[in-house]
Design goal:
Blueprint (H helix, E strand, L loop, with lengths): L1 E4 L2 E3 L5 E7 L8 E7 L6 E6 L8 E2 L8 E6 L4 E6 L8 E8 L10 E2 L3 E5 L2
Parallel strand pairs: 2-11
Antiparallel strand pairs: 1-3, 3-8, 4-5, 4-9, 5-6, 7-8, 9-10, 9-11
Amino acid sequence: QLQASGGGLVQPGGSLRLSCVASGFSFDNYAIGWLRQAPGKEREAVSCISSSGSGGNTYYPDSVKGRFTISRDNAKKTVYLQMNSLKPEDTAVYYCAADPGVCPVREYDYWGRGTQVTVSS
């Protein structure tokens, strides 16, 4: 299971940190990603971090590069997404997902429920 939290309402230029807590699988061996979906838009991957054993590489699309940072704490089975300089176009439901592959991942095996992020003044 994956449980995402940390969403909320923030003003443009503000920051939020999302958390994703995992249970029920070998977290250390999985890549964890964050994806988002806004109303009427396709789902978009916004970050991914590979397992430490696979090198721990990270992936960001150009739309969030330099503003979002993904990190993982294997002891806590938690992945974080630090989002800075938020823009209204970042408004979406954010999901975390897990896969035994290496970032970037095309199709994730496990999905959590989303957390809403709204960027608005």
